[in-house]
Each structure stands twice: as C-alpha cells, then as structure tokens.
Amino acid sequence: MSFWRALMDLVTGGSQSFDCEGEDCLPGHRVDDADYAMALIGLGAKMAKADGEVTRDEVAAFAQVFKAPREFEEPLRRAFDLAKQTTLGFDGYAHRLKRRFRHHPAVLEDVLDGLFHIAKADGRVTDDEADYLQRVAEIFGFKALDYDRIKVAHLGAPEDDPYVILGVSRDASPDAVKTAWRRAAAQNHPDRLIARGAPAELQRIADEKMAAINTAYREIQRRQALEDA
What we know:
Elements: H1 3-12, E1 17-19, E2 30-32, H2 34-49, H3 56-65, H4 73-83, H5 90-101, H6 105-119, H7 127-140, H8 144-155, H9 162-166, H10 174-187, H11 190-195, H12 200-228
Antiparallel strand pairs: 1-2
C-alpha cells in the first residue's frame, strides 16, 4: 500500500497499516500509518502558513495535491484548518515522515514536490517559505545538490543551469552525468508515481520535471562535446 493511499484511507476510514521497516517497530508487528498521513496534512497546511498568510490559492493547491473524494473533503478540510493556525510543530511532522520513509526517498521527494506546489500557488515564494522548504528538505535528509535539483525544477534557475537540475558538479564525468540523468528520470517517471499512488497533480509536476531533466542532460552532453572538440 502506498503512503498516498494511506492518506485516502485516513479520511475514508479504510485500512491504515503498513508493514514495519527497519527500526520503525519490532519484527512481526505492523505500524498504524494514520499518524503519518496526519503528519503529511499538517506539513502541507503549515507550508501554506509559512509566510504568515494562508491564501485561497494555497488552499486550492493543497486540495489538488491531497485530493479526497467529495464526501470526505470536510474531514480533510478540518484537519487542514487546525494545522494551518501556526507553523509551530512542522519539524515534528517532517521528522515523523523521515523516520517512516527513510528507505523510500522517492516518496519524500513526492511530499517536497507537493509543498513546492503549495508555496508557489500564489505566484511567488517568499523568503519564509523558502526557509521552510529548505528546512523540511534537510530533515528529510536531502543533500544540498539534491535540494537544488528539486528547487530549480519548480522555480527555475539562472539560465536554467543544467548541472543544478541534474544535481551534479560542473566537473562531473560523462558517465557520472549519465548516471544522474538515469536516476532522476527513473524516480520521476509517471509510472513510478502511479505505483506510489501519487495524485494526478503530482504526476503533472513529474512530467514537467522530466522535461527539465531531459533538457538538462542534452545541454550538458552538448557542452561536454564542445569541450572535447
């Protein structure tokens, strides 16, 4: 069962359990993921509050990323309204998700993609929102290069720096660049997101990221070919 399915189960009253992994619980036991689904809702709501004002566009963006069946929209809205009152406690939510999905960085990147979608919903990302996103990424365990890669996929970079988009250094070898491209492409492939149960809005975001990833790879290949000429 995917984490996104667990979120739906939380608001629909369905199954909410995953098999335990690593140090999450004792062998032979299962963990109730309702708490983690609530952490995801809280993290999204507090993202909207990060700049001090929750706009209608941000609320709409939250609903796109964490979409529930019509009859269960009200419980999800109540959970969002409660969490959006303050940003206090967001790091606790992030740590919970990190512990649960430390072996599944692709899921954590899905979550970060959703937070970026909320942050830029009103047409800009403030310094406070940027700080929030960076702190969540740090808690999730993303290295600086990985965070920059995710960030520029959403917000762009000066001249759309292809090295930042792929998360490689400028002196990376052609083989290292190719490996980074394959890893990024595999992780953001729409089929992978469908398998993780990600909502349609995140799948659209993944399509945009894939386009940026492929363009960056071609540009680095072009530059390296010129250097070798």
